[in-house]
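Anyone able to model this chain together with inosinic acid?
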Amino acid sequence: MSRPYVIDQLISAKSIAARIEELAREIEETFAGTEKLVVVGLLRGSFIFIADLVRELDLPVEVDFLEASSYGNAMESSREVRILKDLRGQIEGRDVLVVEDIIDTGHTLERVVAFLAARNPRRLKTICLLDKPARREVDHKADLVGFEIPDAFVVGYGIDFGQRNRNLPFIGVVRFIDEPPVALDP
Ligand code: IMP
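re: yes, here you go
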């Protein structure tokens, strides 16, 4: 049987929406004048973020998806990142924005950026909703970050714990009920 846990809210749905508006303005500035921006969502964790983000963008966009292997059903990164599902469209000579849910150790984004850069896009930028800088193992930074968060396991707004809790409208921290709460303020 799985260990019982509760979810403590960390970022409200309202704060996420407000931050997405700001991020959209930054993306519009970066890609002003683009013929068409290819917005690439990393499956599955980014599906709600990308849906909200593209609706805020006042730019011509195309949406595509890529799937990389990540945690599986565990709470630890495997570090070995494989591409499970490739893009449908071509990105050579095009403007591309990769949309990721969380940058944790950094292995996934580093691998995905190298994979896509090899196809010679015109510009390739990355955006992550959440960044856990304390856990970084590779020197890789997203161009845009929604929120920096502490070293805690989070769920909601598309992000899962063993495929559960993706449908929460907010971001929350998983707390096992036999453990004390994580100190969220440094
Ligand atoms: P990285 O390769 O360690 O940067 O891991 C990135 C991926 O790990 C993310 O796209 C998520 O799928 C997963 N991940 C990292 N932290 C969490 C978390 O707190 N909750 C759920 N998934 C996470």
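The pocket of inosinic acid is lined by residues 45, 70-71, 77, 100-108, 153-154, 159 (CB under 6 Å).
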